[in-house]
Amino acid sequence: MEIRYYNDPDTGQPHIYGHGVREHEVEDVLRWPAENRAGAGDSRVMIGRTRGGRCLKVVCVPDPVGSGVFVVTASDLTGKPLAAFRRRLRGRGKS
User: Fold this and answer.
1) Hey, how many other C-beta atoms are within 10 angstroms of the C-beta on 7?
2) What is the pLDDT of residue 94?
3) Residue 24 pLDDT
4) Mean pLDDT by 10 residues, the chain (95 residues)
5) What is the sign of the dihedral through the CA atoms of 19, 25, 35 and 58?
6) Is 46 helix (H, G, I), strand (E, B) or coil?
């Protein structure tokens, strides 16, 4: 799967770097998402764990230039959203 990243106009680097997330972590979540939900418009919100154990939320859209995905942002899932995610997993017997 081809993956492109939104670049922060101020730094020229992928926006995910501002959240302390690296490309290989996003790729982990995209390959094995625990949840893949519809977001606003054509976006998808994927939640999953990296091989390192971090729980991330990744927002992406179909890549308008290619056949892959365009990652808009990714960040750690924390607080109440993390607790709700864990409850949903328990309800499916995956915790």
Assistant:
1) 13
2) 58
3) 97
4) 94 96 97 95 96 97 91 97 92 66
5) positive
6) strand
Q: Tell me which DSSP letter residue 7 carries.
A: B
Cα–Cα distances in angstroms (integers) from residue 17 to residues 14, 29, 68, 72, in the given order: 6, 16, 20, 12
Domain count, the chain: 1
As a whole number of angstroms, the distance between CA 53 and CA 34 comes to: 13
pLDDT recorded at residue 93: 65
How many other C-beta atoms lie within 10 A of the C-beta of residue 77?
20
Q: How much is the pLDDT for 42? A: 93
Residue 48: domain span: 3-91
- Measured in residues, the chain has a length of 95
Sign of the CA dihedral with 72 first, then 74, 75, and 80 last? positive
Largest CA distance in the chain: 43
Could you tell me the CA-to-CA distances from 89 to 58, 84, 85 in Å, in that order?
17, 9, 6
